[in-house]
Design a protein that fits this description.
Strand content: 15-25%
Largest sheet: 8 strands, mixed
Helix content: 25-40%
Distance between the termini: 43 Å
CATH superfamily of the largest domain: CoaB-like
Shape: elongated
CATH architecture of the largest domain: 3-Layer(aba) Sandwich
Radius of gyration: 25 Å
Number of strands: 21
Oligomer: single chain
Structural class: alpha/beta
CATH topology of the largest domain: Rossmann fold
Bound molecules: ligand PMT
């Protein structure tokens, strides 16, 4: 597992001889575990055939025959907006002087430029052109505009060029492009901070073979753990039973019951800066677990349940408490119930998700959200340490339906922002 695993990457290919290197880029990204889609400009198709990229990526190539967005979108079978939302990152490689100029000035005259304008994904570009075109002040000015718009620029390198000249303007080699792309996913907003994240369900044993559980898959919590790592945090992930692959390079603690989860959380909370409780923890456990498998004899069977401790409230009541983020899985009165939990459990932030409406419409399809789905939609509320009355909700933000991995990145950015605001307020007060 590396930073590109499971990432949705769009490679935008523009007209230039370096387009042949993008075939290798496609292959290497797929090898790294990324999901790749290719968008080609008309000029790019004159250098390398779309079929090459279709074969390598395993998906039809999106391109425009007429530089007309509507027809290209339709022929591609996927509108530019959907592709824009699908992408975690768009890398334009090679990026021609013409496309760089268009992107710098917000032009949207073909599928690729429209897609870039419509996407909130990471966007980066690898210039490739003749050295004189590269040196031209207008090209330099356009690159500067893109960099100021937060587009990382990869290269160019210098050396012999296809046109026979020698100088700056060659596209970077594929391994350099991959390294630079990987770096883009490292935001550093949580650099050096210790995070404890819980995920998945808990199983409360009834007897040696049966348990009370819930539908949590762990996806939301694992996505948050990945996003926190990308942000530079040291992550301890405490997970109930899940079929997901354990994320690498973090501390992983597997548990089964709520009591085990509580023990694991308390054992790891001392140096923790931020605690995120995504787990669907069982509120009750069976009072006396049968030592043997319960036989089917009586028509009715009564199980006596006893309340589990509320782990997050315990963490929030610690004297040197971390910044505490809870989740609220609700089937009705989502907002009101989440706000009530934020205050009652003395949290800093709560993330509400509606697990009652099984299906939600995106621009392209009906998707399930919440439990055991790749998608979710979040409504976040937080309190503010600088207010006298910390039981007052001071801010909120809605995140529309999206893949959990995308939501996790956005949520981590918000948590980092609020954590820093809280920390600077607390530092001022103790100074
Ligand atoms: O795992 P997925 O399939 O991806 O699904 C994700 C999710 C729907 C499980 C997740 O997004 C979510 O909403 N998790 C919290 C579910 C939940 O148990 O909510 P709650 O309203 O019951 O609990 C509120 C908060 O208290 C939660 O942060 C919970 O972790 C915490 N809690 C609850 C009970 C308990 N005994 N101890 C706790 O710490």
């Amino acid at each position: 597992m590396n930073r590109l695993t499971d990432k949705h990457i769009v490679i935008g290919i523009t007209g230039g001889i370096a387009a042949y290197k993008s075939a290798e880029l496609t292959r290497r990204l797929i090898e790294a575990g990324a999901d790749v889609r290719i968008v080609m400009t008309h000029a790019a198709t004159e250098f390398v055939t779309p079929l090459t990229f279709q074969a390598l990526s395993g998906y039809p190539v999106y391109f425009d025959n007429s530089d007309d967005v509507e027809s290209s979108g339709a022929s591609a079978g996927m509108k530019h907006i959907e592709l824009a939302r699908w992408a975690d990152a768009i890398i334009i490689a090679p990026a021609s002087a013409n496309t760089i100029a268009k992107l710098a000035h917000g032009r949207a005259d073909n599928l690729l430029t429209t897609l870039c304008l419509a996407s909130e994904a990471i966007k980066c570009f690898a210039p490739a052109m003749n050295r004189v075109m590269w040196d031209d002040p207008s090209t330099q000015a356009n690159c500067k505009i893109l960099i100021e718009k937060n587009w990382p620029q990869f290269g160019p390198a210098s050396g012999s060029q296809a046109c026979g000249e020698t100088g700056e303007g060659r596209m970077l080699e594929v391994s350099d492009l991959l390294n630079r792309l990987e770096q883009c996913f490292k935001s550093g907003v949580l650099q050096g901070l210790n995070l404890v994240i819980t995920a998945g369900p808990t199983y409360e044993a009834i007897d040696p073979v049966r348990f009370i559980g819930n539908r949590s898959s762990g996806r939301m919590g694992y996505a948050i753990a990945n996003a926190a790592q990308e942000a530079g945090a040291n992550v301890t992930l405490i997970s109930g039973p899940s079929h997901l692959q354990k994320p690498e390079s973090l501390t992983f603690v597997g548990v089964e019951s709520a009591e085990q989860m509580q023990q694991a959380v308390l054992a790891n909370i001392d140096n923790c800066h931020i605690y995120i409780s995504t787990a669907a923890v069982s509120d009750y456990r069976v009072k006396s677990i049968s030592a043997q498998k319960i036989k089917k004899t009586a028509d009715n069977l009564t199980l006596q349940l006893t309340k589990n401790d509320d782990i997050i409230s315990t963490v929030a009541s610690h004297k040197a408490r971390p910044y505490v983020v809870g989740f609220a899985a609700e089937t009705e009165n989502v907002i009101a119930n989440a706000k009530e939990k934020l205050i009652r459990k003395n949290l800093d932030m709560i993330v509400a998700n509606d697990v009652g409406s099984p299906s939600t419409e995106t621009s392209s399809e009906q998707v399930d959200i919440g439990f055991n789905s790749e998608y979710n939609a979040l409504h976040v509320f937080w309190t503010d340490a600088s207010l006298k009355d910390t039981s007052q909700i001071s801010g909120e933000q809605h995140f529309d339906v999206a893949r959990k991995s995308q939501l996790a990145t956005q949520l981590i950015a918000l948590i980092a922002k609020q954590y820093n605001l809280n920390r600077s307020h607390n530092a001022k007060n103790t100074a």
